[in-house]
Write a structure and sequence with these properties.
Elements: E1 2-7, E2 19-22, E3 28-33, E4 39-44, E5 50-54, E6 63-66, H1 68-73, E7 83-85, E8 94-101, E9 111-112, E10 131-132, H2 133-138
Antiparallel strand pairs: 1-8, 2-7, 3-6, 3-8, 4-5, 4-7, 9-10
Bound molecules: 2-oxoglutaric acid (AKG) and fe (ii) ion (FE2).
2-oxoglutaric acid binds next to strand 1, strand 3, strand 7 and strand 8.
GO molecular function: metal ion binding
Pfam family, one: 2OG-FeII_Oxy
Organism: Oryza brachyantha
């Protein structure tokens, strides 16, 4: 699926958000952004303190986001990082385009979990298996779920510990 975002010029950027904090629900997102900026990713220190870091636009560079489903399939190795878009004072609109590698809409008949090849006694499953595509995709803010709007870890219900 492809989506393009248009963020108009905003006279009071501190009073609103381009996109609220969320994680992408699918496998991977490939994002092209123009040179305006505004995308931020949440970084959490080893001591648990977290803060937002600008993903500064680089000419010709694509941003690759790991999604929730890849975090599940990789048994928590690759993290689906929370991100958001803030508005800024530049008097130019911002445009970004994203390609989402999402599972097909096959209802509840396909289930995901950590890949069996990755599981061993040294690497036990950290996330529950048997999650349906519907559950994954409906947790996203794109489908009417709240995404990570409340700042929570989207995968908490799946965690084994
Ligand atoms: O516009 C951006 O830079 C980010 C868009 C985004 O996070 C998304 O489409 O999921
Ligand atoms: Fe996103």
């Amino acid at each position: 699926m492809m989506a393009s975002h248009y963020y108009p010029v905003c006279p009071e950027p501190e009073r609103t958000m381009g996109i609220v904090p969320h994680t992408d629900p699918g496998v991977l997102t490939i994002l092209a952004q123009d040179d305006i900026g505004g995308l931020q990713v949440k970084h959490t220190d080893e001591d648990g303190a977290s803060y937002w870091v600008d993903a500064k636009p680089l000419p010709g560079a694509l941003v690759i986001n790991v999604g929730d489903l890849l975090q599940i399939m990789s048994n928590d190795k690759y993290k689906s990082v929370e991100h958001r878009v803030v508005m800024n004072l530049r008097e130019e609109p911002r445009v970004s385009s994203a390609i989402f590698y999402n599972p097909g809409r096959r209802g509840d008949s396909v289930f995901y979990g950590p890949l069996p090849e990755l599981i061993s006694s040294e690497n036990p499953p950290k996330l529950a298996a048997g999650v349906s595509t519907k559950e994954i995709m409906s947790s996203s803010c794109y489908s009417g779920g709240d995404g990570d709007v409340n700042g929570g870890d989207e995968l908490t219900p799946l965690r084994k510990h």
